[in-house]
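== Polypeptide entry ==
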Amino acid sequence: MDGPMKPVPKKRKPSRQQPPQSTWKILIIDDDVATTVPLRDYLRSEKGFDVLIAGTGVEGIRAAVEHVPDLILLDFRLIDMSGLEAHEILRRNPVTQHIPVIYSSLFLTLKTIEQAAMKGAKGFISKPFNPSDIYAKVTSALAST
C-alpha cells in the first residue's frame, strides 16, 4: 500500500434519546386538545411510544378495552364524567383492571391526590406539562408493571 491511510470517520451519536426497545402503548384520556396533541406528538416522535387519545371518559373506556394500553394518562375532569369515575369503571373490568393510571390535572389538590391514590393511581402530573417530568413518570410507572 502506498501513501498514508485515510482516517475512518467516527459515527455520530444520535441527537435524540433512542426510543424504547419495545413500543409501549399509552392512552391519553383528556378533553383538552391543546394539551393532548402536543403531548401525543412528544411521546411519539421524541420517545417512540404508541399513543392513542380519547376525548371523553366513555371514549377512553372503550379505547382501553379495545386496545389494552400499557398505561393510561387520565385527566381528573372530563366532559362526561370525572377521572375517578372512569378509573373505577376501568378497575372493575377484568380486561383493563391491571393497567396503571397516572392522573393529570390543572387543579391538583391534596384531596384529589388522596382520592386517586385510593383508586390505585401510579402517579400525578400537574398541568401545564413539563415533558421531562412526564417521561420520567411514564417510564417509572411502566417499569413497575
Remarks:
- The helical segments are 33-46, 57-67, 83-92, 110-119, 131-143.
- The longest strand covers residues 25-29.
- Confidence is low (pLDDT under 50) at residues 5-21.
